[in-house]
Amino acid sequence: MRIVFMGTPEFAVPALKLLLEQNYNVVAVVTQPDRPKGRKKTLTPPPVKEAALSFGLPVLQPERMRSTEAVAAVAELKPDLIVTAAYGQILPKAVLELPRLGCINVHGSLLPKYRGGAPIQRSIINGESTTGVTIMYMAEGLDTGDMISVVQLPITDEDTSGTMFEKLSIAGAELLGKTLPSIIAGEAKAEPQQDELASYAPNLTREDERIDWNKSARHLFNQVRGLSPMAGAFTFLYGEVFKIWACAVVRDGAESASAAAPGTVIAADNNGIIVQTGDGMLALKEIQPAGKRTMSAADWLKGARLEAGTRLGDGGAA
After folding, report:
1. Together in a domain, 21 and 140
2. Residue 309 placed within a domain
């Protein structure tokens, strides 16, 4: 029983570890190439590569999985099963047809909702109260394959993308452990997805990170949580990028009546920076001014002046 594992970020590491802990024969790991990271652009291996090397597993890092060389390299491994988790590339038909037991994917959403590369972030940004993990057979389309098993998890107001990535990665690994025996035995019952119910979660862009103060306080609260701790949401203050890492809704609906324009600072004190939105007020709790470290808004205000009436979001390109 020869398994090839494909994955890239930290989300995929628990699934790889589970395969090894349960003594499955992982013959190689395929992951994305090392990428420059941080201000110094230091070439950094993906978390799955680091985990694989720590277990002494061979690692392949093709730039394009669709290349003839990449397909040939995987074919040489003679996999019976390919397991993927957040690999980051669509597998070509030539790879999908290699293993006799097929290719399965550990996907971080309740399919057919949130097909694509950013399902966890977009679930939070869109204000979902429930998400989960789906294990599916892979097909040529984007996350369109038949579903084998699923687990659901709640999303609370305290959750961010960071906390949900961790919860879902663990839940996905546990689900994989429960699902594999039936797949290997040829007894797995797969259910086709209802395409008419599908929604998509494309990778995030810089524009997804920009705060639109005309939106409601609740919408912006979800946006900030969905972008933390990865990219972070941002606005502009005095023409410079001003990042927001944590916030809270302080008023919404009927309680939010104000003559101030959206983006106007209502107050700036130990409670944070209170900003008027299109519907409600938002308290900025954790911020990062241009060129500075992340800090609490209260700490920043000890050495910075921010007067009521100041407008956020004015000026500057991202």
Report:
1. yes
2. no
Enclosing H/E stretch for 289? strand 281-289
Please tell me the pTM assigned to this model: 0.92
Non-local CB neighbours of 307 within 8 Å, separated by 6+ positions: 265, 268
**Beta strand extents in 138-237 (DSSP E only):** 147-154, 233-237
The model's pLDDT over 37-92, given as tens digits with 9 standing for 90+, comes to 877 889 999 999 999 999 999 999 999 999 999 999 999 999 999 999 999 999 99
User: What is the tens place of the pLDDT at every residue in 132-165?
Assistant: 999 999 999 899 999 999 999 999 999 999 999 9
Q: Is residue 308 a part of any domain in this protein?
A: no
* Amino acid letter for position 156: T
Q: Please, are residues 272 and 298 in contact by the beta-carbon 8 Å criterion?
A: yes
Total number of domains constituting the chain: 2
Determine if residue 315 is left, alpha or beta; phi over 0 gives left, psi from -120 to 50 gives alpha, anything else beta.
left
Of the chain, the percentage scoring pLDDT greater than 70 comes to 96
Give CA torsion, residues 89, 20, 183, 60, to 10 deg: 30
Q: Are 282 and 247 in contact (CB under 8 A)?
A: yes
Does residue 294 share a domain with residue 163? Answer: no
165, 259: one domain: no
Say if residue 253's pLDDT is above 80.
no
Q: Is the Cβ–Cβ distance between 273 and 245 less than 8 Å?
A: no
CATH number at residue 165: 3.40.50.170
Q: In whole angstroms, what is the distance from residue 146 CA to residue 190 CA?
A: 6
Query: Which tokens sit at 128?
Result: 């979902």
